[in-house]
Design brief:
Pfam families: TMEM175. With 195 residues, this protein is mainly alpha-helical. The chain has one domain (3-24, 35-193). 76% of the residues lie in helices and 0% in strands. The chain has helices at residues 3-23, 40-64, 72-86, 88-97, 102-130, 135-140, 144-159, 164-179, 184-194. It is globular and about 55 Å long. The two termini are 27 Å apart.
Length: 195
């Protein structure tokens, strides 16, 4: 299978995930701005999840640029990642409708953590397939940011029962860490193309 088919399938799934999440925001009854107040928590949870899906889409896109050949292991690792991402609409809706309650906040973090681990597995599958001297292996190096993200997600899950606000703050911090463009893969691709 060519990587373009894998990219197209993944892009389609991510587009559907975003569509499902936005459908959670029901049109309010009323014509003044006060009518929007009840859906504010749903909107904020949607906004955070939209940012996360955007981060995954962007990094997935860059990562697949390093792939020369798609293997069965890469296909299954990609599906594993898409499975966890497909749960975003559910946990996003649950958090938004329950105003940062502990159990929804904890489950949100569990899904974020498992998506991060699935992304790491996909990364490892690509590196195993392409070799330890591959462009992706050079780009990610020790992947400190990825490992730190997983630690923060796990911490946020535990904090959800003590302080859902602190848990939410950690989710936002990780999103902000990844919003700053990660140029590692782009740099390696640029230097690899010139060589």
């Amino acid at each position: 299978m060519g990587k373009s088919r894998l990219e197209a399938f993944s892009d389609g799934v991510l587009a559907i995930i975003i569509t499902i999440m936005v459908l959670e925001m029901k049109v309010p009854i009323g014509t003044d701005l006060a009518a929007l107040k009840p859906i504010l928590p749903v909107f904020l949870s949607y906004l955070l999840s939209f940012v996360y899906i955007g981060i995954y889409w962007n990094n997935h896109h860059h990562m697949l640029h390093t792939v020369r050949q798609v293997t069965g292991t890469i296909l299954w690792a990609n599906l594993h990642l898409l499975f966890w991402l497909s749960l975003f609409p559910f946990v996003t809706g649950w958090v938004g409708h329950n105003h940062l309650a502990p159990a929804p906040m904890a489950l949100y973090g569990v899904v974020l953590l498992l998506a991060a681990l699935a992304y790491f597995q996909l990364q490892r599958a690509i590196i195993r397939s392409q070799g330890t001297d591959s462009l992706l292996a050079k780009a990610v190096g020790r992947d400190v940011k990825g490992k730190l993200s997983s630690i923060l997600y796990a911490s946020a899950v535990l904090l959800a029962y003590l302080s859902p606000w602190c848990s939410a703050a950690l989710y936002i911090i990780v999103a902000l860490m990844w919003l700053i463009p990660d140029r590692r893969i782009e740099k390696v691709l640029m230097t690899g193309e010139r060589a």
